[in-house]
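Sequence in, structure out.
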Amino acid sequence: MKKANVLFVLLVVLTAIQMSAQARKELNFGIIGANFEIPVHKDVTIAPGASTNFDLDWLNLGVRGNYYFDNLFGIEDEAWDVYGGAGVGYSIYNGDNDHDHKSDFDIGLHVGGRWFWNDKWGVYVELGGARVQGPVGGIGVTMKL
């Protein structure tokens, strides 16, 4: 039953993200989560979002900041992005009978890359780690809004 609750909350958050993303720059949705990026500078974004893991044992609600290294690295091709950043949020443990895990405040770092195959759609891959969950990463698609 707990995993059904995680799926329900994740669905509600993802729906809210899509509904409120009309004024946003980019919507990222992957295998286990989604976020939308709000530009605050030409190289910096903030991205509220939600995610889980493959076992649906965790529900993560938080915000992350990304720094895009494109200008620093001299990447002039607008089809490519290279970024890194940090995230903060709350990780809710919803697993079965595991006393080693508990819900807690979470922080983490990540790095990633993205390639746009046209003016609206792209694919991203990222790696990172978080204090509560340990190693995390993602693969998904980006839609420019």
